Amino acid sequence: MAIKSDTAESLDIGALRLLALVEREGSILGAARLAALSRATVRRKLEGLQAEVGVPLFDKSRAGVQLTEAGRLLSRRASELLAELDLVVDSAREVALAPPRPLSLTIPLGLQPHSLGLVTRVLQSMWPGTCVHFHARAQVRPDLAAPTDLYLSLADEIPPGPFEVIELPEVEVCLFASAAYLQAHAPITSVSDLAPHPLVMWSGPEDQAPTALPLRAGGELPVAPTLVSNDVHAIHELAEAGFGIGYAGHHDLPGAPPSTLQRVLPERVGQSLRPKVLITRGVAESPRIRHLVETIRRLVAEPQR
Asked: What pLDDT, on a 0 to 100 scale, did the predictor assign at position 97?
């Protein structure tokens, strides 16, 4: 087969979507059902795509249709590009859309409920009628096959993909306990004083069971936590209830209800995390998304002034 030089300009976008469905479903019939098309129509479009690309994209057998290595490569890269294209179209439409389309955010599990209300209130003040969809995940991993508008990640590594990354002010991960709990126990003035206390610990952005506390001066303090959770808010609630000493992200938000939590050994134990907002490039220039990111940056920074 001869490869055409102008292939990219003439490819059938619908056929590319069907190719991705065939890879996902493992058959033309499954792709046809999802696309609400006849099997003959799907087959014809795929054969046309294969002829246009100029290399074999799939093999037929009694077991069904299997994509070739070239077919799998085209399917996966096309899925990323089509997802980004869909977001670009949505961004163009939202400028004139009233009320605005729902805004979708993927966030770490256990963010303070007040922070979700704060973001929603800001959005409502800018675009009345906006509905915000929060998707809480133990591990925030962008998925271009089912993208959301923004991802808030606490992980150090930036995932590969067509993302714009905006770093937010640091968030402290530290020890804390309720005032009543601290008053009922002997003063904690050194790391050795932590030994008799139950530790309620966050499992971190990678959702792994912790075995040590990071020391500010370097090194780690081995520990055996009483309870581990990937839900930051649950750690705060347990510490508030006097269950023990908590270890998780701790940040005072403007307008949040008063907390009885007090930091424990803040100069000796803890670490800083740099939250990141990941924006799919297809929506990065959306006025609404840009405004939201800058507003979040300002609100997070306010308590640190």
From this structure: 57
CA dist., res. 126 & res. 291, Å (int): 9
Beta strand pairing call for 150-153 and 103-108: parallel
Structure tokens that stand for 159 in this block = 């995932």
Summarize pLDDT for 273-305 with one digit per residue, the tens. Answer: 888 888 776 666 666 677 676 776 666 566 544
- CATH of span 99-168+274-304: 3.40.190.10
Report in angstroms the alpha-carbon separations of 184 from 177, 179, 193. 11, 9, 14
CATH number of 7-92: 1.10.10.10
Domains of the chain: which residue ranges? 7-92, 99-168+274-304, 171-273
Spatial contact of 246 and 211, defined as CB atoms under 8 Å apart: no
What distance in Å separates the CA atoms of residue 166 and residue 278, rounded to the nearest whole number? 7
- Output DSSP code: residue 176: E
Quote the pTM value: 0.62
Q: Residues 123-140: pLDDT tens digits?
A: 777 677 778 888 888 776
Q: CATH topology of 99-168+274-304 equal to that of 171-273?
A: yes
